[in-house]
User: Which sequence fits this backbone?
């Protein structure tokens, strides 16, 4: 809290004096240090008639300086001011020189607001005060949060890129497979993709049965005994391909099936995934050449093989129904796979045009429908497109859930208000 108040200068400077009564005026609070050493670098303060440039260390009590052994650490010889809440001892540099100390008096309003935010057991601590934050401030923060979220996804993609020898088509395949799990089965789908190299799919994409056999076999779904002719066909194909490529399937129990709508069963999703790769080779290369959002959606608007018209799983027939990927699911794929990979590609190749295209695509997609977006909407936060909904997901997961109100621009406004 003291670091936060110092950083944002939320104190009354007229009352800010050293423990010896010398006035202190803060010219520059300095830069936050997240590594070892003093809390703030390159600050500038005037103590009496002398201007000092150096570092700032902040503690609750003066004696914390000794508790942390700073008196023996030359890193702290550069401290020009020790900012404290309570003075209980004098402090010195390693050569014995005294270091000025000043008591930071926390305004009662600020302290109450911080305690109110951090002590609340609610999904969004400041929910009922969101309406007091200006729309301009909210929009600015949402823009920054969207960039944060894309940067986080970019880091994940770069990890995959490093592991796969800078093969962007393989990385796109891995990313798409993970997101085809639609949350509940994302980890299982990613494991499957890791066990089934993209090059094997390319080799057999002209044989739909073999592509389905590879996906279902690697998912561990080819171990049953059944008189279902299509299942028997896939099982024979998989036995051949497994031996040819020395494949090891993942454990089938990793795929969750309970409490899912039939259209979300892993069997249906795998059949849809197979259909995508049967229709397209080097899909990411096509995406790089495509700017129109309708065309991008059409890449995923594919129907699985005829067997899946009357099945949601093997061995059990159902009423006939097409299992094409709908617009809502296509948009989720664009949001979580196509757009982040485009953004990452633009960053990696130093071609901002792809980053800009990714942001434009988000603006052209309707916001996601989930509990996080609904909660913020209920409290007056404007949500116009998928960029806004992605920003709110970042806000909830990285700030609200982790109680990082002191790092949030909305929290800053709430703390400063009466």
Assistant:
């Amino acid at each position: 809290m003291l670091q936060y108040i110092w950083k944002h200068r939320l104190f009354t400077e007229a009352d800010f004096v050293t423990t010896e009564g010398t006035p202190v005026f803060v010219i520059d609070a300095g830069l936050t240090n997240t590594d070892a050493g003093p809390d703030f670098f390159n600050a500038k303060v005037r103590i009496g008639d002398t201007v000092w440039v150096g570092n700032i260390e902040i503690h609750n009590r003066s004696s914390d300086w000794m508790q942390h052994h700073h008196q023996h650490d030359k890193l702290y010889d550069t401290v020009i001011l020790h900012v404290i809440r309570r003075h209980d001892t004098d402090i010195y540099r390693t050569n014995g020189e005294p270091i000025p100390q000043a008591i930071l008096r926390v305004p009662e309003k600020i302290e109450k607001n911080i305690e109110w935010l951090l002590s609340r057991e609610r999904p969004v601590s400041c929910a009922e005060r969101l309406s007091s934050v200006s729309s301009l401030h909210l929009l600015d923060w949402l823009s920054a949060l969207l960039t944060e979220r894309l940067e986080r996804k970019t880091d994940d993609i770069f990890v995959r890129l490093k592991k796969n020898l800078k093969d962007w088509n393989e990385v796109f395949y891995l990313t798409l497979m993970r997101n085809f799990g639609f949350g509940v089965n994302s980890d299982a789908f990613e494991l499957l993709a890791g066990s089934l190299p993209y090059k094997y799919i390319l080799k057999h994409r002209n044989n739909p049965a073999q592509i389905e056999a590879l996906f279902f076999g690697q998912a561990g779904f080819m171990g049953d005994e059944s008189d279902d002719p299509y299942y028997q066909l896939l099982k024979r194909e998989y036995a051949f391909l497994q031996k040819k490529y020395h494949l090891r399937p993942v454990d089938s129990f990793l795929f969750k099936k309970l409490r899912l709508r039939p259209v979300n069963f892993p069997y249906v999703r795998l059949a849809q995934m197979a259909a995508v790769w049967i229709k397209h080779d080097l899909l990411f290369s096509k995406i790089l050449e495509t700017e129109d959002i309708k065309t991008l959606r059409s890449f995923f608007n594919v129907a699985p093989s005829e067997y899946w018209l009357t099945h949601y799983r093997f061995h059990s027939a159902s009423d006939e129904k097409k299992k094409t990927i709908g617009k809502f699911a296509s948009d989720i794929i664009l949001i979580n796979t196509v757009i982040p990979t485009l953004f990452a590609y633009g960053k990696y190749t130093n071609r901002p045009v792809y980053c800009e295209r990714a942001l434009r695509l988000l603006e052209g997609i309707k916001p996601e429908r989930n509990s996080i977006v609904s909660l913020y909407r209920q409290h007056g936060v404007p949500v116009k497109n998928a960029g806004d909904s992605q920003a709110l997901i970042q806000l909830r997961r990285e700030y609200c859930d982790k109680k990082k109100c002191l790092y949030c621009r909305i929290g800053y406004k709430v703390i400063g208000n009466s």
User: Anything to note?
Assistant: The mean pLDDT is 94.
